[in-house]
Design goal:
Helices cover about 40% and strands about 30% of the residues. The chain has twelve helices and twelve strands. Helix 3 packs across helix 4. It starts with a strand and ends with a strand. About 45% of the residues are buried. The site of cytidine-5'-monophosphate has 11 residues, from strand 2 and helix 6.
Amino acid sequence: MHSYSLIAPAKINLYLEILGDRADGYHELVMVLQSIGLADKIYLRSISTDIIRVYCNNPQVPLDNSNLAYRAAELMVREFPTAFAQYGGLEITINKQIPVAAGLAGGSTNAAAVLVGIDLLWKLGLTQSELQELGAKLGSDVPFCIAGGTAIATGRGEQLSPLPDLDHLYVVLGKYRSLTVSTAWAYQMYRQQFGSSYISDVKSLESRASRVHSGPLVNAIFHKDGAKIGGLIHNDLERVVLPTHPQVLQLREAFHSTGVLGTMMSGSGPTVFALAESNAQAEQIQDQVKAMIPTPDLDLWVTRFCNTGIQVASSAK
Ligand code: C5P
């Protein structure tokens, strides 16, 4: 039986603008997404019984079909019944390093790794865009997690345009261990509070999205200008999460006071990230924030931007 070990990187949002409602109940978004070095490891192997089994080192992670990685395996079983009959069931072991419900796409990147891994395990030969089409059925961030790097994401977040690599930048992440935010809750709150300002006509939506494509942040990314990027990062969801969770605002302010290139909440939070020019600067920021907020509940990480999505670490027969 073959097995694969895959690296599944987290992502941060350098930009997240909510444009309006969609007919499918989701929001129409314009985002700039960035893969980072903080990653889970997914070990995938075929087993002789016809079941899907999930293991994880983090007890917060469900092991049933409420886990997106489990649902990714179920989707592949449904889509490719002949391969499933030939290769048998699947054992998925998740070594979780990415915090859960943190705005870092931890669940989505695990699902992305399962799709990529099963494609290899079952020798399906799917293209990246075929895998991304399957990924979009599981969650809005899954297609990005497959390809990774730096990209503009529009629609629900599943329509991607790649941007140049930014792997010279470093990032410090901060998250209170006891605090999680549900993405569905954050979008629902946003709709309640700001729904009246949503754009609804197709022309205005298209023109807003295209302005981001040629806008100042994307321009700064093309010039790999860390200071400009740091000044232009934006996240609409801060408008609902920061007032509800003052701790997150306090963490953001702590990062800001250390002279970072820029600081922002990622996705629906509650993780806050800060951009730095070098590993040494990032470590200095980490130490300063640790001293300013000396609680064991605050986890901090230093990592860097990365220009890949799901990667195969090793395989065995
Ligand atoms: O796509 P995903 O399952 O990751 O999204 C989680 C939740 O976030 C959705 O159920 C929805 O409530 C909200 N969402 C949204 N608009 C998007 C993406 C997510 O309203 N474009």
